[in-house]
Amino acid sequence: MLDFDRLTQDIAAAAERALQEAVAHSGAPLAGFALCSDAGAMEVSPAFNTWAHLQQQVDDDPQDAVYYRWSPGEWGLESFGVAHFRAINQRVRQAVAEEVSPQRFVEFRARLFQACVAALTRVRQQPRFASALRGAAVVFTVCDMEDAPAEKAWIEALNTPQDAQEFKRWVDALPTRGS
Amino acid sequence: MGTSVTLARDGRLTLDHDTDSDSDASFSDDGGPAATTARSRLAPTEANRKRGLNPEGDDKTVKRQRVTVAAAGGANAASTSTAPAADFHWGNYLRSIGGGEPPPDMETPHAHHIVFKNSRGARMGAYLDESKAILERHGIDPVLGRENLVWAPNKNHKTAAARAVRDALVAADKTGSRDAVAAALAQLGKHFADGTITTLYK
Q: Looking at this predicted complex, what is its ipTM?
């Protein structure tokens, strides 16, 4: 069975390496730092945003500024540094395919998501990344799943109270859309 | 006697026959184009859903909804649907309708909706509404239709990509042909799968 403590360590290490590369590529500070997964629990990938990219989007569509800030799908550096996650993703997919029964899948997925949030928390708390992430939106997101209560809890765990409040107010004010 | 399609929360789609008189199922299992209209057992109770430990739910409390689902492999299956649970396992669903496995060399694969399911961005939402209307006009289910699902890397869910998809579908729709719309979706799916969708908007 997948060792989730080890997985959390490995995700954090991969996220650190990807973050270092993003800073080297785009400079600090960054506007966004995220890990992304999917409802099938098949993978974890990083995403980053730059202030220049965010500013460009906000200038183009100022009425939806908060959406662009908190939505890694819109960010400038999607999957940047994903190579660091290859071995992790291979293990996760293998575990889903070979070890996780259908009855245990939802539990497995929840633990994978918890591991991602814990890994992001570890990286975020490191003093050496403080300046790179000052003011950044730090996000864990699942591309094909909307679970607003879970998302709000993740954002609260990863960001300042003020930023988490911005996210919460935005999500709570969203109109209910059909899928 | 009809066919009941069960869309479990883990994305597995199972077919079973029942004799319930209010079933309106019809199912072609010859592998050709088919549409299955069936009652689908969708989400378990909200309490179970939040606990996340019982993906199948309790049959006694499971909601029943009318759903039309593309039968396995039915490339031309038309369907309209009520959305599955928010945390539905799309990968298993794509497998169950003939999508196979993701290519082994694909980075971060997931079951990707070519016309995205939804958006929290207003501008993207408007593009999606236009695209979904085109699909529905041609009998293609934007949520469950096989034509709108493809294995692709987990990226490129941008407003600009939604606009590119809308533009391609509008052009295809002008022919008035369902085949043209389906072909446009297939082409867009390839672009998402190999990452070249960015060439349509960058």
A: 0.92
